[in-house]
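Private note to self, pasted from the team thread so I don't lose it. Backbone tokens:
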């Protein structure tokens, strides 16, 4: 088959060259359209179920909401693990499926199971499936500072801009999965019943609730014909005026209405929140932008920045322009630039070495054509396989760059040798026959060598789980590019040799001076080695044994440490800390971090945003730190930040945004190493965890060693006196519902 390819390529020379030019053009177009990302697709199909259960304690959420849903989800086709987190008023369940399963089919299966589970959870609690997102999906953090001085925007104005202007605009961008604002104040029209005046007027809370439910609403009235025209009838009761709400009749007494404003306080107020944000030690709104799986991060980021530029005129007076706190595309562009530079430098070095050995321009150019053509073929195959341009695929190409010219060099050298011999022959053969014979002559050896090299990378495809997803694209890039170079050496290389080599002056000369000198040195080395063959073999075997014995002592890590240009800090206060106190300490932490010279800006997210899939309490904060380049290394900067935050009553863990997400993917926590202790008694588990922590504290290289704070938080328990509730004409359920409305509110 290989001989046939060589022969037909030489007989269709112009077609082969035209096809090569078209392939280069199409490959370049393909590269420009290929998605660019940090890593290959590491998204294991996961369906997230979020359930808001306002007012329920964590143990009630676990028993009444999480456990029934988990039970319904277990045993689904293709599910590998179901894990959950239960907090105050919130349940989050993650259903993980096998690699390669269809995420939309998985979501449909989960939706069917949720329909069955709804009968087992409390009334009014409705589970919702989260959007399809990526583990590396948080591609940008945008800070909306409130401004300073007189005339500064209020937290409510900033949040309204984020919710009603910025978020809808960003969600309209193709590739954006979710936009999650946190911080500021959410405006709501609040009714605060005055129990003393309610008792004075004899109005119950149930009467107020019933009146509010029927307060506003538009209805249709059908059609009416009038004067040969048809009119649509609309009944309009909806209003946004506070005066209309204050004048709502909630009851009647002695034929006169009792108005809402007589028994309650009505007005706009900030909604209760379980999270807040800060920017450079001042209140702010921070918006997290998440992308869809397989979306081009760099392209989506560019469209987001264009949208932000277009919204500058819509920013409320007194509010500063949006600041980009974190931009994942920076790391991607830097990584791609570095690897591309390595590819470029490698190609230049290959060209220099080739010219130094061949000492002729034409053979060098013929050999070098294998590099762009092989890369073009690889780009086309990437498009067919749905691969992205990332550090792993580019790494595979960087490894292969030196080997891409091997096949062509062997072909060119043998063709030059045969052309020289044919010129001196008594009866020279046609040039086509000489080139064909010389190329076929070395074909078997080239194919065997290529197969052997490829087999070295085949085990990468046997790696399971995330390891296989991460490293198999590297193997694909290497193998495809090597096979492409072999194909080029059988098609384009012989054709170029036919056109360029016969008239070359080097046919009149022998080897270049460098090759001639290396041959002389090689002959001397061989002459010295043969008498000492046994000792050299023993020395080589000893070197192999020593190398194998040294392997266990090398440091090992799943991935090398990256310098992402930014840090993410996890700040954990004591459970039970209020949001106001967490905010106060958060502002102090931001100010301390900004004292480090390398810090450009700091953004903080405390607690949980309304749409977030992370079940964090108000005692937890995540601080994003943007760094500038300096003479100090990353470890020194992190150590400086640790020292400054040591004065706070909190545990601190420092990482980097992308590495932090990889750690969470691998271990389920924000650390590279996680030890999990299982049992039924929380106090015993806590004691064992402290013992383990004290034993691990002395290990060199271990930093940010913390025990997850799962402790009892302060509670105020209101127990119902069933007898007195019955005397009041209420059921216990009605009593606790009324209490919930008075303390936590109702929507």
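Design output:
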């Amino acid at each position: 088959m290989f001989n046939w390819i060589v022969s037909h390529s030489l007989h269709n020379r112009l077609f082969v060259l035209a096809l090569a030019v078209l392939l280069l053009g199409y490959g370049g177009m393909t590269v420009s359209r290929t998605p660019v990302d940090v890593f290959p697709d590491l998204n294991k199909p996961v369906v997230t179920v979020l359930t808001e259960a306002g007012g329920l304690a964590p143990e009630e959420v676990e028993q009444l909401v999480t456990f029934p849903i988990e039970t319904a989800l277990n045993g689904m086709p293709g599910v590998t693990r179901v894990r959950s987190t239960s907090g105050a008023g919130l349940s989050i369940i993650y259903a993980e499926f096998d690699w390669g399963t269809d995420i939309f089919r998985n979501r449909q299966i989960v939706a069917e199971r949720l329909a069955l589970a709804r009968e087992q959870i409390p009334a009014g609690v409705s589970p919702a499936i989260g959007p399809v997102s990526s583990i590396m999906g948080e591609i940008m953090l945008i800070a909306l500072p409130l401004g300073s001085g007189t005339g500064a925007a209020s937290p409510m104005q900033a949040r309204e801009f984020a919710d009603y202007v910025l978020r809808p605009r960003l969600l309209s961008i193709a590739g954006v999965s979710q936009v999650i604002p946190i911080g500021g104040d959410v405006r709501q029209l609040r009714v605060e019943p005055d129990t003393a005046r309610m008792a004075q007027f004899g109005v119950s809370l149930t009467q107020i609730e019933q009146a509010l439910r029927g307060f506003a609403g538009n209805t249709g009235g059908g059609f009416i014909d009038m004067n040969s025209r048809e009119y649509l009838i609309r009944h309009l009761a909806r209003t946004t005026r506070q005066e209309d709400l204050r004048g709502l009749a909630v009851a009647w007494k002695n034929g006169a209405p009792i108005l809402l404003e007589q028994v309650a306080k009505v007005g706009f107020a900030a909604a209760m929140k379980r999270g807040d944000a800060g920017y450079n030690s001042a209140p702010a709104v921070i918006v997290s932008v998440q992308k869809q799986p397989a979306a081009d991060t760099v392209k989506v980021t560019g469209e987001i920045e264009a949208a932000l530029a277009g919204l500058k005129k819509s920013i409320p007076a007194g509010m500063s322009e949006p600041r980009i706190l974190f931009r994942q595309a920076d790391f991607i562009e830097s990584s791609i630039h570095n690897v591309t530079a390595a590819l470029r430098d490698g190609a230049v070095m290959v060209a220099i070495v080739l010219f130094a050995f061949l000492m002729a321009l034409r053979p060098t150019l013929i050999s070098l054509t294998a590099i762009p053509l092989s890369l073009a073929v690889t780009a086309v195959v990437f498009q067919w396989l749905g691969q992205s341009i990332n550090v792993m695929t580019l790494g595979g190409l960087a490894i292969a760059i030196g080997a891409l010219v091997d096949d062509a060099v062997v072909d060119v050298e043998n063709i030059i040798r045969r052309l020289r011999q044919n010129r001196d022959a008594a009866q020279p053969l046609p040039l086509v026959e000489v080139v064909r014979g010389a190329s076929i002559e070395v074909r078997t050896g080239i194919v065997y060598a290529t197969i052997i090299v490829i087999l070295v990378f085949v085990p990468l495809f046997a790696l399971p789980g995330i390891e296989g997803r991460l490293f198999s694209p590297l193997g694909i890039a290497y193998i495809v590019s090597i096979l492409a170079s072999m194909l080029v050496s059988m098609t384009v290389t012989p054709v170029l040799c036919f056109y360029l080599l016969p008239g070359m002056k080097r046919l009149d000369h022998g080897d270049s001076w460098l090759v001639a000198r290396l041959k002389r040195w090689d002959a001397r080395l061989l002459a010295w080695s043969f008498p000492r063959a046994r000792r050299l073999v023993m020395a080589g075997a000893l070197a192999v044994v020593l190398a194998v014995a040294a392997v266990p002592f090398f440091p090992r890590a799943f991935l090398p440490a990256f310098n992402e240009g930014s840090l993410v800090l996890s700040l954990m206060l004591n459970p039970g800390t209020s949001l106001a106190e967490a905010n106060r300490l958060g502002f102090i932490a931001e100010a301390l971090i900004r004292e480090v010279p390398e810090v450009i800006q700091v953004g903080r997210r405390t607690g949980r945003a309304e749409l977030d899939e992370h079940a964090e309490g108000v005692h937890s904060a995540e601080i994003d730190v943007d760094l500038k380049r300096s003479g100090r290394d990353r470890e020194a900067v992190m150590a400086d930040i640790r020292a400054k935050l040591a004065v706070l009553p909190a545990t601190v863990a420092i990482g980097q945004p992308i590495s932090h997400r990889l750690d969470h993917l691998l271990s389920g926590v924000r650390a590279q190493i996680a030890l999990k202790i299982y049992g039924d008694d929380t106090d015993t588990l806590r004691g064992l965890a402290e013992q383990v922590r004290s034993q691990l504290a002395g290990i060199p290289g271990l930093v940010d060693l913390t025990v997850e704070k799962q402790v009892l938080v302060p509670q105020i328990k209101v127990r119902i006196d069933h007898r007195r509730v019955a005397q009041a004409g209420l059921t216990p359920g009605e009593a606790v519902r009324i209490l919930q409305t008075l303390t936590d509110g109702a929507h």
